[in-house]
Design a protein that fits this description.
Length: 297
């Protein structure tokens, strides 16, 4: 499966196509992300992932403008924050204003939790993510949002969303944590059956990744003559998921995009599929409700 990954896109159920490789921006420190976005776009990235909750949309917008790459060539994803579920219209307007753009390509519900803005330990008593989705469904008609999707939805919450009569639009994307220590094969299969594309977040295992110590990964990267990050990104891409590695280090931003013509054999994919360790970077303990019910659920 040797491909020109930097030009590869994955089709969505809306007819749009999402670039396979994007730049993540969570935890990028102030004054770092503007430069990271510029470097990435000038290197050839055409997909940037941000969120209202990251507090960096304005800087991401500046980086986009610094790059000189025309807006229409770039895929921008941003996300509705948990405490904004009752304020979808305000949420998208805030993101567009911060980013300095007229539209985003993808607007995601960041988490299936309608958190009380006045008390983060509480879920709103009179609202849930189905009601949020009903509001989000109205957005594409205005042209300010090209595609809508969800994030951090396991099978249980997707079932709930898709079976509700208020749901008229199947999410185009489910952005979820995916790496060899959190592979969620059943969730991927479920999304495939429903026509929902999956984007892999924390695809390198995130900050101080435990995967850096994995001996199977290390040996495989050495054998191929590639970095461990490149191996992890290929594993994600070959599973049909888009990947959004975050880096603020120019050399890493560049190396993470040097994947063209590289591929893992079926045997090598299987080796990574069968790593025994399991961890999740983003659990649900900090939310007022439980949203994960096991690896895929
Ligand atoms: N929807 C959600 O709830 C959600 C949750 C988490 C993440 N996300 C999105 O997914 C993106 C990616 O996830 P993530 O930020 O958790 O983690 P990640 O992309 O898996 O890993 C980022 C970490 O890896 C380092 N790194 C990057 N390239 C490297 C390389 N070639 N070699 C060695 N280290 C490398 C980065 O360091 P430096 O930056 O210092 O180079 C950073 O510490 C986020 O930024 C965000 O956009 C979404």
């Amino acid at each position: 499966m040797s491909r020109i990954w930097t030009k590869t896109t994955f089709p969505l159920n809306t007819g749009a196509t999402i670039p396979a490789i994007g730049l993540g921006t969570w935890q990028s420190k102030p004054n770092q992300v503007r430069e990271a976005v510029r470097v990435a776009l000038q290197k050839g990235y055409r997909h940037i992932d941000t969120a209202l909750a990251y507090g960096n949309e304005a800087e991401v917008g500046q980086g986009i403008r610094d790059s000189g790459v025309p807006r229409e060539e770039i895929w921008i994803t941003t996300k509705l924050d948990n405490t904004w579920h009752k304020r979808v219209e305000e949420g998208i307007e805030s993101s567009l204003k911060s980013l300095g753009v007229d539209y985003v390509d993808l607007y995601l519900m960041h988490w299936p939790s309608s958190t009380d803005p006045d008390d983060l330990s509480k879920h709103l008593p009179d609202w849930d993510f189905i009601a949020t989705w009903a509001e989000m469904q109205k957005l594409p008609a205005s042209g300010r949002v090209k595609n809508i999707g969800v994030s951090n939805f396991g099978i249980r919450n997707l079932e709930k969303l898709l079976s509700d009569p208020r749901t008229k639009t199947v999410p185009a994307v489910n952005q979820i944590e995916l790496h060899p220590n959190c592979p969620s094969p059943k969730l991927l299969q479920y999304c495939k059956e429903k026509g929902i594309h999956c984007t892999a977040y924390s695809c390198l295992g995130s900050t101080d990744s435990p995967l850096a110590k994995d001996q199977t990964l290390k040996a495989l990267a050495e054998k191929k003559g590639w970095s461990a990050a490149q191996v992890l990104l290929l594993w994600g891409l070959q599973r049909g998921t888009s990947v959004i590695p975050k880096s603020v280090t120019p050399e890493r931003i560049e190396a993470n995009f040097e994947l063209d013509g590289k591929s893992l054999s079926e045997e090598e994919m299987k080796q990574l599929d069968s790593l025994p360790d399991r961890f999740k970077v983003c659990g649900d303990a900090w939310l007022p409700i439980k949203v994960f019910f096991g690896d895929d659920e």
